[in-house]
Amino acid sequence: QSIADWAQGKTKDDIAAALRGEGDSPVAQIAKAAKADEFWMYSRFFGLGLVKMMEIIGVEQNADDTYPVMEEWMGKSLDKPFFTACSDSDLYFKVKGKLDMMETMMKEIEIREKKRMAERLEAKAEAALKKAERDAEFKAVEAADIEEKVEEKEATPFFAGEE
Length: 163
Known about the structure:
Elements: H1 2-7, H2 12-19, H3 26-36, H4 44-57, H5 63-77, H6 83-155
Helix pairs in contact: 2-3, 2-5, 4-6, 5-6
């Protein structure tokens, strides 16, 4: 976090100077230690830290734009082999691209499922509405039949057969 705070507002040249060991920043201290140790080993974490610093200072986050910066920082500034760092940054962007595609695909699947669920709910609501209309119509016909029978009974005299 202290390196990220330090990198805020810096330029590529400022960080390159720190990687050459100039100044007293945390990055300059790390660079001095790495240059002094002939058995210093590059690690992916170190490379990803450089990629993160590039992101902080505003370098476009894709393999084509970070490669020359990584080459400059590792090769010219740190005087260390840059091929592994560049290939690791390429790998990082390939994996990141795949993860972004996967995230997009998952969102699309989620949207598709929500649409299907909405269609199912709409169909259920439509079926319930039709059933309610059918029931109301059935009750209306039933009520009309009962009313018709009541009217028929009232129209015929009780002692109709006695006349």
